[in-house]
Amino acid sequence: MCAARPGEESFFDHSGLAPHELGPLGEAAAGELLGRRFPALAGRVRRRLIAAAEGNPLALLELPAALSESQRTASQALPAHLPLTERLQWTFATRIGTLPPGTRHLLLVAALEGSGNLLVVRRAVAGRSALKQLVPAERARLVRVDDTTGRLAFRHPLIRSAVVELSTSDQRRNVHRALADAGNGAPEQRAWHLAQAAFEPDEQIAALLEDAAETSAHRGDGPNAVAALVRAAELSPAGTGHARRLAKAAYVGANLTGSVRDVPRLLDDARQAAPDAESPAVAVAAALHLLNSYGDLDTAHRLLFGAIALQPEPYDLSDGTLLEALSTWFMVCVHAGRSELWADFDAALAKCVSVPDTLRLMRTTFGDPARARPADWARLDAAVRALPGTPDPVRIVRIATAGAYADRLGAIEEPLLLTARGGTGGENIFPAIQASFLWGSHAWFTGQWRQLRQVARQGLRWCEELDYPLRSWTGKFVLACTAAVCGDFATAHGYADQMDQWAGSRRGHAVRCYAAHARTLIALSQGDFEAAYRHVCTISPPGTFAPFAGHALWAILDLAEAAVRTGRRAEALAHVRAARDAGLDAVSPRLNMVLLASAALAAGSAAAAADGFDRALAVEGAGRWPFDHARIRLHYGERLRRGRAPVPAREQLAAAAETFRRLGARPWAERADAELRACATPVRARNLPTLTPQQREIAGLAAAGLSNKQIAERLFLSPRTVSTHLYQAFPKLGVTSRAALRDALDALEGLDGLEGPDSP
User: Fold this and answer.
1) How many Cβ atoms are within 10 Å of 371's Cβ, its own excluded?
2) CA–CA dist 525, 40 (Å, integer)
3) Per 3-state DSSP, what percentage of the chain is helix, strand, and coil (rounded to 5)?
4) What's the CA dihedral at 133, 135, 136, 139 to 10 degrees?
5) What is the 3-state secondary structure (H, E, C) of 214-238?
6) Which of 112, 516, 556, 643 is most open to solvent, judged by the fewest CB atoms within 10 Å of its CB?
7) What tens digit of pLDDT does each residue of 383-429 get?
């Protein structure tokens, strides 16, 4: 067996033998190979290596071996150019070593420039090389130049790494210095090249790099922002500047990339550099690390409260670190859901200037939406309208958070999904996690349950990969909801148990509400209405909307149904009144639909119920929320059937059953089907021929589930005789299947009792 490199002239070109070209591994196969040989690789490292190897199996097996253990587990960032093992160096570097010195210098400049911009490369090599010296590298198939765009590209990413590894540190610094002078006006690239050329502390370069980090963070490039801040800290003169930039790297990493695992190391380095320095950045990073390990919400609250209180008043939120501290504090208060924590937060917010609209909106429309005013919803709608096209993933997530309880996520579905998909590239994973779960809550209400499971599970994989449980609960909540209504009660209980366990030791009321809502849906799906009522009252007592319990807006219909089913009609009506007093019927069409249906459920008269259900189903766009819509039709159909109106009842129940089946909500479809079977019973028994005693006995045994043969054996008849009696009984009862017999017989017996023995 012999092999030759594709595209290179070899003996086999003239042998007449038929070649077999071995192509690169696909992404799935490359991931499987890495998973088998290096199962402990962190996800983001695996993605980077797969991209760098471009399907080359040798590279896939060798690249991890060149990394340190901390690099393989992502506790230390990967370098810009991946290190190569000796075997890879030999594979990719043999052709480089034979090139003329001028060509090798050109390749090093191109490798460190990174974008392939030949204008910048030409300026950087002026006086030492000329672009015509690229010809040997092109002939060796190391690079290619696109004549249309004028861009240079290495034929394989590892050729670039090999070029860098074959150079000396002095050569690299000189090239970076030349590239900084030759730049095309991009401050970020210039700052990076100056930083790479420096070999001793330089505050001016550190400041430039910190500015570049701000730009990267605003653009959503978290890993680049963290790397810039760490390098800026290295270039800072000893003291508070060094510590401040390390702390800033820690909180940017935790807030934007999800790199909570890196936080302790960065904070330890910061404290060693300046033991007395305590900043909002340190507090943010420490609080996030606490909440994602074994810390509790009250400790995180004290950390952030203390760090912000040390700042000069009024607090200037144009300082990014102070803004992030307040935003993190907001998240702590949301999870805790307790008035005393919110009081401290609101007092601090009142002392702030230049408060961003995102923070104000989240406080009013998400922190306590039942007390938001019409002007708050108007400001939210203006922010939602302005959101499409923004490149800032943090702003997208924060506006979406502000609109979550108010059903505004449909208007920003595309930006949310784009942000969620951004995490698959290994960048901006923290906003991607939040966007995944925010979109998941929208998908729960809009019936996109198959996609919901895919997106939410991806978000949970990121949480697990990054040791980031704090943000996992919303994802587990929407998965628990879909599992509950689809009859997968074990899965739903499992998620609820996890949420209760986390919330119990940390006093996290919001996460307890998630668990209670999941258990409510389990109980409703199982017909255990007393348990459902007990669980849903954990979120907020009936007749009130507890302060800072925004989740209560998602549980209105559940509370109404559980209350009515357990004989607590007054409590259901009180809850509807409380919601209307809070103006929730004007917040969104879905909330209006739910409140109309809840009032109809609890209505005392058939006419009031019918009017309420009709109005609920007539809300504009009501079908956009298929599960709630189908539940309303189910409740309407049940009320009509009990009111002896089988024809309109069948219309509502059939539509509900069809929607439940399409969604996969099996317990609810079965409930609708049972009501449909009951509707098959005629309203008046006098209009039907009377069943003979034997027909009634046989029909009763058939309804109990016995087969014709079993009935025949019990009554000492032939199976043919049993079949004949059933054939005669079915049209008398107005049914066409054995499944409808029980409801038909029960109804017939009830009507017999109503009409009495002397009735005609």
Assistant:
1) 15
2) 41
3) 70, 0, 25
4) 170
5) HHHHHHCCHHHHHHHHHHHHHHCCC
6) 643
7) 999 998 888 888 999 999 999 999 999 999 999 998 988 766 656 77
Q: Is 705 exposed, middle or buried (0-12, 13-18, 19+ CB in 10 A)?
A: exposed
pLDDT band per the 50, 70, 90 thresholds, residue 269? low
Tokens 């390749």 sit on residue: 107
96: amino acid identity, one letter: I
Q: What single-letter amino acid sits at 618?
A: A
CA distance 196 to 295: 38
Q: Are 584 and 553 in contact (CB under 8 A)?
A: yes
Angle between helices 320-336 and 297-309 (to 10 degrees): 150
Residue length of the chain: 760
Would you say the C-alpha torsion 445, 447, 449, 452 has a positive or negative sign?
Answer: negative
The Cα–Cα gap between 212 and 218 comes to 10
Q: 3-state DSSP call for residue 315?
A: strand
Concatenated DSSP letters of 629-689:
HHHHHHHHHHHHHHTT-HHHHHHHHHHHHHHHHHHT-HHHHHHHHHHHHHHTS-S-GGGSP
What is the rounded CA–CA span in Å between residue 634 and residue 271? 62
User: Which amino acid, residue 369?
Assistant: P
In terms of pTM, does the model score above 0.85?
no
H helices within 540-645, ranges in order? 556-565, 569-581, 589-601, 606-617, 626-642
